[in-house]
């Protein structure tokens, strides 16, 4: 479960990114985060995996109180959270296999288990035949499926996705959403920021709208609600 209470975030240059945001996300929920550029969506998501810290307010993620979390405990938080970005962020010099296995090596999983699980997630995203390819040899949609495989390889309870379809064409975006839905169906919480009106309005999940650093709308089966 994720809980934020009265979160304020002011960056070093004085920008107020979040201004008194409170929210609770239950296990296995699928949540879209919408709102204009600069509203605070990315900041909101970065707080969850401790990429940023709030200026004020409390955050609990899977029982961790992030205010009190020691630096050396951050890996324990992060192994429970998979992150997916708009620009994929695969390591260009590593093969597809190595990109995914690397996420398990950092948590010191045994070699045999790494191999088994890496091939398993490649199967899940339907790209087993690319195991020895380099990221540049894959299409954008394929690279994003690999990034998703990497995000789920350690069985996280939460996936944070910041505009994962932002660089993809509509058909490929739908493939990615099918995959996200399947991952959610297996019990993983998904929090996804998006500007894709069609996806939000078709999938009918919970929608959080953020404007000027706070939540202005929270609907159970919401719609996109903007014209762009
Ligand atoms: P969104 O994801 O909705 O576009 P962001 O969370 O990225 O919004 O940004 C919210 C506000 O904080 C914007 O005004 C943005 O310019 C600012 N901002 C984001 N990151 C930083 C940073 N590292 N330093 C200063 N300002 C930032």
Brief sketch in words of this structure:
This protein is α/β, with parallel strands linked by helices and 228 residues long.
Give the secondary structure arrangement, pairings included.
Layout: E1 2-10, E2 16-25, E3 30-34, H1 41-48, E4 56-61, E5 64-65, H2 74-78, E6 81-85, H3 96-105, H4 111-124, H5 140-152, E7 158-162, H6 170-185, E8 189-193, H7 197-203, E9 206-211, E10 214-219
Parallel strand pairs: 3-8, 3-9, 6-7, 7-8
Antiparallel strand pairs: 1-2, 1-4, 4-5, 9-10
Helix pairs in contact: 3-4, 3-5, 4-5, 5-6
The structure holds adenosine-5'-diphosphate (ADP).
Adenosine-5'-diphosphate binds next to helix 1.
**Main β sheet profile:** 6 strands, mixed
Task: For the record, give the distance between the C-alpha atoms at the N and C termini, rounded to a whole number.
Answer: 31 Å
Listing every helix as H and every strand as E from the N terminus to the C terminus, the arrangement reads EEEHEEHEHHHEHEHEE
The average pLDDT is 97
Give the name of the CATH superfamily.
Answer: P-loop containing nucleotide triphosphate hydrolases
Strand adjacency order, main sheet: 6-7-8-3-9-10
Number of discrete domains: 1
Quickly give the CATH architecture: 3-Layer(aba) Sandwich
Share of helix, binned: 25-40%
Over all CA atoms, what is the radius of gyration?
Answer: 17 Å
CATH-assigned fold name = Rossmann fold
Work out the strand percent.
25-35%
Structural class: alpha/beta
CATH class descriptor name? Alpha Beta
Q: Indicate the overall shape.
A: globular
């Amino acid at each position: 479960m994720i809980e934020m209470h009265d979160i304020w975030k002011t960056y070093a240059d004085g920008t107020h990114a979040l201004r008194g945001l409170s929210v609770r996300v239950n296990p296995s929920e699928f949540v879209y985060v919408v709102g204009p550029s600069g509203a605070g969506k990315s900041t909101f998501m970065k707080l969850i995996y401790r990429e940023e810290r709030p200026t004020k307010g409390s955050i609990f993620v899977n029982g961790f109180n992030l205010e009190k979390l020691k630096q050396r405990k951050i890996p324990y938080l992060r192994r429970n959270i998979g992150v997916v970005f708009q620009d994929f962020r695969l390591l260009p010099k590593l093969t597809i296999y190595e990109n995914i296995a690397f996420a398990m090596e950092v948590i010191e999983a045994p070699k045999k288990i790494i191999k088994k699980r890496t091939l398993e997630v490649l199967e899940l995203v339907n790209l087993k035949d690319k195991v020895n390819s380099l990221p540049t040899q894959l299409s954008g949609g394929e690279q994003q499926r690999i990034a998703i495989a990497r995000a789920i390889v350690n069985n996280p309870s939460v996936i944070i996705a910041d505009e994962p379809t932002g660089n993809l064409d509509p058909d490929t975006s739908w493939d990615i959403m099918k995959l996200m839905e399947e991952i959610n169906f297996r019990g993983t919480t998904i929090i996804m920021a998006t500007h894709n009106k069609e996806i939000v309005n078709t999938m009918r999940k919970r929608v959080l709208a953020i404007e000027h650093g706070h939540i202005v709308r929270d609907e159970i089966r919401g719609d996109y609600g903007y014209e762009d």
